[in-house]
Design brief:
197 residues; Nucleotide Exchange Factor Grpe, Chain A, domain 2; 3-stranded antiparallel sheet; 3-stranded mixed sheet; 3 helices; 6 strands; 59% helix
C-alpha cells in the first residue's frame, strides 16, 4: 500500500500544482470579459466621435442651407432692383410724353392708361415715390443738381428735376433736385460797422 499511497500523493501534488479545469475556465472567461469590455469602450469612443462628426456636419449643412437661401434672396433682390430702375426710367418717359402731348386726346388717354398700369405694377412691388419738394434737402434721399436763389429758406428743395423712389423703405433712386440758396442779399444795404467812403 505504500506504493499506492505514493501514487496517490503524487497525483495530489500534480493536481495541486496544475490549475483545475474550473479555474482555467474562469480565467478564460475573465479574459474574454476583459477583451469584450475593452472592445465596448473602444466602440463607445468611436460612436461618440461619429456622433460628434454627425452633429458638426448637420450644423454645417444647416448653415450652408441658410447661407444659400440668403444669397438667393440677395440675387433676386438685386435683379428686382435693376428691373425696377429700368421701369422707373420708362415711367419718366411716360410723364414726359404726357406733359408734351396736347394734340390728340385719344393718344393722351392711351398713354395715361399705360402709365397707370405701370404705376400699379410698381406699387404692387413696393415701389414708393419719395416726397421731397418743399422739404429740407436730405442727401440720403436726394441728389442736388443745382442751387438757386429763391424766396424759400436756404437748404429747401425748390424743384424736383427727376423723381426719386424707394423699394421696401430703401432708396433705389434718389431724387434729382434744385436746392434754394435763400433770398438774395441787397448789395445796397450796408452792414453795421461798414465804413462809407
Amino acid at each position: 500500500m505504500s506504493e499506492e499511497k505514493k501514487k496517490a500523493e503524487k497525483m495530489e501534488k500534480v493536481s495541486s500544482s496544475e490549475p483545475s479545469a474550473q479555474e482555467t475556465e474562469s480565467q478564460e472567461a475573465e479574459a474574454v470579459v476583459a477583451a469584450a469590455e475593452a472592445k465596448a469602450a473602444e466602440l463607445s469612443t468611436q460612436m461618440k466621435e461619429l456622433e460628434d462628426r454627425y452633429l458638426r456636419l448637420a450644423a454645417e449643412f444647416d448653415n450652408f442651407r441658410k447661407r444659400t437661401a440668403r444669397d438667393f434672396q440677395a440675387v433676386v433682390k438685386s435683379a428686382n432692383e435693376r428691373l425696377i430702375l429700368e421701369l422707373l426710367d420708362l415711367r419718366d418717359n411716360f410723364e414726359r410724353a404726357l406733359s408734351n402731348s396736347t394734340h390728340n386726346e385719344s393718344f393722351r388717354r392711351g398713354v395715361e392708361l399705360i402709365a397707370g398700369q405701370l404705376d400699379a405694377i410698381l406699387k404692387k412691388e413696393g415701389v414708393e415715390e419719395l416726397r421731397v419738394d418743399g422739404r429740407p434737402f436730405d442727401p440720403s434721399t436726394s441728389e442736388a443738381i443745382a442751387h438757386l436763389e429763391s424766396e424759400r429758406p436756404e437748404g429747401e428743395v425748390v424743384q424736383v428735376l427727376t423723381k426719386g423712389y424707394s423699394l421696401g423703405g430703401r432708396v433705389v433712386r434718389p431724387a434729382r433736385v434744385t436746392v434754394s440758396k435763400g433770398k438774395t442779399k441787397n448789395e445796397t444795404n450796408e452792414e453795421p460797422g461798414d465804413i462809407q467812403k
